[in-house]
Amino acid sequence: MAEALTLFDKVWDAHVVRKIEDGPDILFIDRHFIHEVTSPVAFLNMNKRGMNVIYPDRTFATADHNTPTINQHLPVSDPLSATQLKALETNSKSNGISHWGLGHKKNGIVHVVGPENGITLPGMTIVCGDSHTSTHGAFGAIAFGIGTSEVEMVLATQCIMQTKPKKMRIEINGQLSEAVLPKDVILYIISKISASGGTGHFVEYAGEVFENMTMEGRMTVCNMSIEMGARGGMIAPDEKAINYLKGREYAPKGEAWDNLVKYWSTLRTEAEAQYDTVHIFSAEDIEPMITYGTNPGLGIGISKAIPSPGEVLDGQKSYEMSLDYMDFKVGEQMVGKHVDYVFMGSCTNGRIEDFRQFAKVVKGRQKAKNVTAWLVPGSQQVESKIKEEGIMDILQEAGFELRQPGCSACLAMNDDKIPTGKYAVSTSNRNFEGRQGPGSRTMLASPLVAAAAAVTGKVTDPRELLN
User: Fold this and answer.
1) Residue 369, SS3 per DSSP
2) Is the predicted pLDDT of residue 2 greater than 90, yes or no?
3) Could you tell me if 179 and 79 lie in one domain?
């Protein structure tokens, strides 16, 4: 009798070109996304070897990481950024790769533009020289980040050598409470299993909570799978995924689409399939979340106090160092903490649904005078929808300005850096020391929590404002 397979098994096994005895699998890659940071060296090495890109039509380039988010029509002032952006453009053109540079109508963060253009499809293998490639797993794809040498390998061969990870299932049933968004769900999970709890695994998310989520919400969850140490995360494709993709520019049409939909219906975990690790949580236990430390696992419900070292999974010394960096103390409440900056955007929460949530809170209110707010759409298409839906008017009436698409303050590779010692409520994915700028102090949160902080100037429970 054949072994029962998980969703992950089915997609992985379908892409194995060759198994190496006592070694990794050689995996075929369906889609390869590249950007200006990790691709130049890969192309340089290929040029030295006289190698060409084997499947240019499977490779997609967009500028996002160190791009400015204001005055994108002007020459990029930072020399390194300008050089990298030019290299991406030149390498793409010489290899026949579609390139969406600054100002292009499809430009944006790589993990936003892939799904919104129908490039990302269920059952695919997808890689990019960026750890948050796991975002695309929301569609039932195996997606993960790779290093520069692996970028070169995929460009040259459309294959990669990978050891098959262990399998983890995270199941959450029940109904989420008011003001609890997908970002809160994933921050809750990481707080329960730690920032290293998924190491060596690929995660499948299952249960009512994920079934009820929008595709944007599922992308947020899968995006942060890497923040628990996992190789990636995925959710079985369903009618929501199919409806999201149908008719998008790069999605198949006609009979090809119909045949794929039939195949996607088979991408389900079989009843008797086994996982190496299983976690089960209840939706009712989740409230709006916020982090207080220097890794995404150090998060609590916004109404809670900072726990003692014995209550967290981090070692005591690292935990104390984390609180010292943040200048927080055990037992303090997060509500009421001073906020200097609010960052709304990134590949985690830079989609139109996120801006709709942000606007719900700020509508009819005014930006706090002590807060600098950077509101950055994840793509040109998201920016257009913000304007079309009247969200731009709400933001402007509340005293906010909309910046141009890009990774922005997520990783301090551009001009959007949080100053030393300043506190930022951020909808991005990492709160490491210096992640948003040297000496910056980051509190990760959902768009609702970010909006509440932006209009009050302090950490605020969004439920108070929504009520």
Assistant:
1) coil
2) no
3) no
